[in-house]
Design goal:
Layout: E1 6-8, E2 11-17, E3 23-29, E4 34-38, E5 48-55, E6 58-65, E7 70-76, E8 89-96, E9 107-110, E10 115-122, E11 125-133, E12 139-143
Antiparallel strand pairs: 1-2, 2-3, 3-4, 5-6, 6-7, 7-8, 9-10, 10-11, 11-12
Pfam family, one: FBA_1
Organism: Brassica cretica (Mustard)
Protein name: F-box associated beta-propeller type 1 domain-containing protein
């Protein structure tokens, strides 16, 4: 299980994988005191990296294929509550950087502007932030003071 969880309407959600390395979302219902296994968006080809976030009280998933230059952002389309045993997903946008992307562990989303602010990890260390816009229209990097990207 990934230690980077999110909270939606009082329930906890984490990236997790089973003994066969199949990725899924692990939810904890604090009201009922139970864990629930939920599906991720439909897989693309190859090994996927997945980051969770929240937008408008819905789960958001940022996915990229290992070694690929493409990322996808997916948002849940069904109501998030304690009775949700399955998730429906809608692809919000996809972007191709033209170079292999890294794994993002945190994100903030401006849904109106369709921009995502992500941390940038290089060599296992946080080095800066990236802003990403839909349809390959916008990308920028911001180095943290004293660090190069």
């Amino acid at each position: 299980m990934n230690s980077h969880g999110v909270n939606v309407k009082g329930n906890g959600y984490w990236n997790a994988y089973d003994d066969n390395y199949v990725d899924y979302i692990l939810s904890f219902d604090f009201t009922g005191g139970r864990f629930i296994r939920l599906c991720l968006p439909p897989p693309s080809q190859g090994c996927m990296y997945t980051s969770l976030s929240v937008v408008r009280e819905e789960l958001l998933v940022l996915r990229c294929v290992k070694g690929s230059s493409k990322i996808e952002m997916w948002v849940t389309t069904n109501k998030m509550d304690t009775s949700a045993s399955e998730l429906s997903w809608s692809k919000s946008f996809a972007m191709n950087f033209g170079f292999p992307v890294i794994v993002y562990t945190s994100l903030l989303v401006d849904e109106d502007k369709k921009v995502v602010l992500c941390d940038k990890i290089v060599g296992g260390h946080l080095s800066g932030a990236c802003t990403i816009g839909e349809e390959d229209k916008y990308y920028s990097e911001i180095a943290f003071e004293g660090m190069s990207i």
